[in-house]
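We modelled the chain as a single entity of 195 amino acids. Its sequence is:
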Amino acid sequence: MYPQKNKLLLAALLLCCAPACLAERADRDKPVHLEADQVLIDDAKHISTFIGKVQFTQGTMLIRGDKIVVVEDAEGFKHGTAYGNTASYRQKREGLDEYVDGYGERIEYDTRAETVDFYGQARVVRDLDDVRGEHITYSQKTEIFQVHSGAAADTSALPKRVHAVLQPKHKTDAVKPPAPDALPIKHSDTLSPAE
């Protein structure tokens, strides 16, 4: 058996390739820091389980949950699942002073597909944009959100709905010329109708 510190170090090494949602690209090369009340590492199955107030940090990415399970495939790609009431995700966007924040009862991140999925009362906030549904998928490759409402538990009830608040994007590259001064309107006796 490994001492507890060695287990955390090994688990951190297993998680080094965590994906990013509109990610700060440099995060991939940063060390992973993990905090949990308990850790279980199964080297034979390539599964690491972190339990109790789990905090996973890599660069600007921060994932929090009650439990995080990480599975490594044969090619070295990782798939992590964070569980919580409510699990959270935060990461800085590449080249911007802006963050993406996501929430759900379950958050799955996949380093191969470069996606982050939020399940169960899912919510993603980016700047002033706010999207909510039962399942939200974000692809880093395409920068596309897909939001699903989920089925209503009662078949006689109305289906659940997706909610979104999307703010208009400001054009910073086009500079509008100043509006010309208005010409004053003056009364003219020469244009008055004849009496």
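As a brief sanity check on the tokenised model: Residues 47 and 109 are 15 Å apart (CA to CA). Confidence is low (pLDDT under 50) at residues 1-22.
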